[in-house]
Amino acid sequence: MKRLEKWIDGAPNSSKMISPVLETLEIESCAKIILLDECHPHPLVSLRIWSCIGLEYIKSIQGLTSLKSLVIGHCPSLSVIANLPKQCHSLKSLRIGYCEKLTSLPCEMFDCFAFLNKLELGPFSKELDSFPSLQGIEKLRNHLDYLDLRGWDHWESIAEEIQHLTSLTSLVISGFGMRELPVWLTNMSSTQHLSFHDYNGLKKET
């Protein structure tokens, strides 16, 4: 499927779902695909979009309300992710990263995926001065237990919103250019595993 250019509604103008027994879909190394649009109901449990260098726009995945795992990564041309499934309570794991043109996350993301257990985000566009806003992530505080944030060395801070994640047990932060660790990290009493990677500018205690 290397010549695939568009994935638009597996069942257009029809009430029938494409492959009703299909649970896992991987779209990988489809260099020419530029658009993904799937708004019709579909029973997919796992969707992985990986290394599609021409993918520019995810117009809609509203129909994928049964997802448990969603991965979007290494898509350097991707600039827009729009129209997520409404209240997809089944989604437990979400990974979005290494999308060098992506400058913001869907504003409704934390409303749609309120029962996430595992979240991995970044890095995104180097043109940004800091990590994209995580406003609303506190809505995951009763369920999210693993968070992995990846940045660039000119991003000197991490999103303060994560301090409200009271159920978080594992936090991984890598690639940022922070010189000091934020004080509020010490107040995250539920966090049992805390990892920092690739911090060349972090000050050491003397």
Automatic annotation (TrEMBL):
One of its GO terms (biological process) is defense response. Keywords: Plant defense. Gene3D superfamilies: Ribonuclease Inhibitor. InterPro entries: LRR_dom_sf. This is Uncharacterized protein. It comes from Lactuca virosa.
